[in-house]
């Protein structure tokens, strides 16, 4: 409840700010949309809590809501910061140059919100299943929730019609998300026209130049005097080792400036390409200036703090087995994958994706906080004439052999090149080669180690062994569902590597799993109940639009999460029923001998009476964790182990199993114990950390199986 109150406080602050909405002169429509989305999300989630939860149980049964609501609170707070930036009455020209091209409202803030809403709603549903002590009410709620996730709703149009308002995917909301950025750019251009035509306060010479910058198309080359002659232009410090990258202060805003001496015609292909890109996770040229006489070029970009290699090293130490918490690691992976998904949708391939080409803006000095990530070095495949050097503030990734980031097919071309350089470049600049590089980056994020740094592959042998199938080894602490995805990405066969759109969908759902199953400082990592890659492949065959190259709009995210959840429930239920039928006869025999009656949950174990009667925080927290599928799967394993133990004790009796298996009473999403006398034994099982296990890694041969 405290987390939900904090969200309400942020929303109240936003309402106070929007009293002055007429004073917002930059991205006003986007600010309006963001506040409306926050209002709708808060109202929808609040209504679900009012209908299904009991306020008197907030200290005993609401524990599973804490992490999802904390995540939602962070999203609201980031949105508030964005709106404050647009409302800030600083130098209007500098703020306009900094924010007018931004798509952060939809592609960052609304993306996060539309991902988080399904997670919070699922957490509410899980708590509702153990809310109250009336069995009939609990049963009815479970029936309602089970009907929600039936396959008949797994259609985009039906989903929008049925759940569009709750998940913020109504037709009106989708239309606004598609058009709001264009509307703000049009409003800005109209405001500049009015300022130019104003007789009361005509524009100065500098302001006229700045107006030309704001109204010019992206990628247009402007005279360098516009930048260098500005009275407040100042170089603050050099970034990197070669001196081409600098931090500058311009019109009250901080930017990064790339300064190169080169014939402009040689650089035009890359300038045109990089200037046309516009995504929160891709570094692009905001403005380009040149001096043709001196043959020098200035590219203005967003300022970032450091590269990913440096960022990982800052938090690696013997006391930390991994650099970041899992939810932060997955978020960084997702941002990189989203940037690459956008690039590939524009038919742009990176060709040199590695940690030194991924830039980071950290929001805090703590490894537990999120960071903004952008992909740099784009355009490597478009132009080979630009002077080579590190594209990030800290240079190359720790001096590592660059071949470790390249796919085997790329290394084969380098060692045995085709006639002409173009053929070799085609292999290097391809979708699947970028996916391989992404897999190696995931390894460093998960382990804190540069691939192959342990020394068993060095020198000339490294390239040869990588082409032969050698890959870096994960340590025991790496979660299996993430190591499996990583191994899919660095598969030797390029056709077996997933697309970045598929990777994004899987990572969103993995992040949802971690948020619903926080480790709470436990030494063992959460274990996923299903194979997300199998779910992705099945859904991609069902929905043809998932196979297209175009990056899907953010409004598709709630349906994608919903479809994953439907399939996950079906597979979890099928697995548990199969285990139930396999061990049914054994359970009946041991039950007769030892008085143990196995009751296997179908999807969620109902322990409402146990949790309501327990006063300890530990018991409540553990019972609440029974919402997760990981708990359900391990619950079955625990019961099977007990059945086998009982069977061994009574083996000398040689009892033939003639009676029917133990009766299962279905209560919607889960099974319910028929006897109150069984609650202590089940409670003991629930209080043990059975849903967590040490995560290893699957071999590549296992992944190759269909």
Q: Quick gist of this model?
A:
The chain has 26 helices and 11 strands. It has 706 residues and is an alpha+beta fold. It folds into 4 domains: 2-132 and 170-187, no CATH class; 218-301, Phosphorylase Kinase, domain 1, CATH 3.30.200; 322-516, Orthogonal Bundle (Transferase(Phosphotransferase), domain 1); 570-687, no CATH class.
Written overview of the protein:
The protein is an alpha+beta fold and 706 residues long. The chain has four domains: 149 residues, no CATH class; 84 residues, Phosphorylase Kinase, domain 1 (2-Layer Sandwich); 195 residues, Transferase(Phosphotransferase) domain 1 (Transferase(Phosphotransferase), domain 1), CATH 1.10.510; 118 residues, no CATH class. Helix content is 52%, strand content 7%. The strands form three sheets. The protein has a six-stranded mixed β-sheet. A three-stranded antiparallel β-sheet has the order 7-8-9. A hairpin with an 8-residue loop joins strand 8 and strand 9. Helix 1 packs parallel to helix 3, helix 16 runs antiparallel to helix 18 and helix 19 packs across helix 20. The longest helix is centred in the C-terminal third of the chain and has 38 residues. It is globular and about 85 Å long. The relative contact order is 0.09.
